From TrEMBL:
Keywords: Membrane, Transmembrane, Transmembrane helix. It comes from the Bacteria. This is 4Fe-4S ferredoxin. The chain crosses the membrane at residues 104-123, 129-154, 214-235, 247-267, 287-306, 312-332. The keyword Transmembrane helix applies.
Amino acid sequence: MQTEFLEEARRQAEICNACRYCEGYCSVFPALHAERAFSDGDLTQLANLCHNCRGCYYACQYTAPHEFALNLPQALANVRQDSWEEFAFPRAAGQAFQKSGLRIALATVLGFALLIWAMLSLASAGGEGFYAVLAHNTMVAIFLPAFLFPLLSLAISLRRYWRAVGAGPLRFSDLRGGFAAAANMRNLNGGHGDGCNFEDEDRFSQGRRFAHQAVMYGFLLCFAATSVATLMHYLLDLRAPYPLWSLPKLLGLSGGLLLTLGCIEMIRLKLRADPELGASGATSGEFGFVALLGFVGLSGLALYGLGQTPLMPAMLALHLGAVLAFFLLTPFSKMAHGFYRLAALTADAQKKREVAR
């Protein structure tokens, strides 16, 4: 990891540890105040606990032009971004996406869409609905490896992270604590429950928390729709296409709406936020991830609306290209931050348990 990022984060963490004004703001500060000296692993853990709500920056009396020039959100964001690149498997892919994420996402979606369009043009599947242009078994053959690769890559990355922060053997109670903190995103609720200052220093808002929840639960609903449809296909011999009031359709449509609206709101919030409080040079990677995820949801909804029209094959190719790109890029995009943050919250729960003994 880059030494200058770690050293700057260490300098600021030591000043914050002496001040303690922001003690109740989020999970970062209790963890920070529990230490007297900060190893590289400690700083990596603090950085991944940080949700970049920026409340501490706007409350701080030592920001520039003070000689201390504290900017803890940016210092931790730089370490956090660097840790994702360092732990990514393979590392070169993680570094490339963070620097040119928007271009890589666009090129990958279009490339896969053209490839799938060529497949659709060469053969007729002879089924119903979408399967009239692309057979179910062909979809499975394409997407199963694309689904398994990110799981393997993320497992290796999270193992590297767990070792780097010095976390011990995992217990179910620790994992439960991490999932509970991630599920309600309480660290985006601000130090006093009024929300965070991500958009404007003088305005507290729950908008960023709600946008993140919409994206997270929208994605989980879409994943649940695919899982339910797979079980219905293979275990119950109920073949797609499914009617509107079927469980896969209800889950997929509600998930697609949440995912699309959540991503639109996240982009709006990012455009309003101060870029000097985020990671240096990470704008392309962040917007590339949110745009790709939002397009997956939007193209899925468009595909449903165009399912009975001549535009369906082209829309299917575009949507499947986006889904394929999303899965393959997940370990290197900001989608991975959800897994790192869950690992950080779990490690934090583990440390609290050990201190309480």
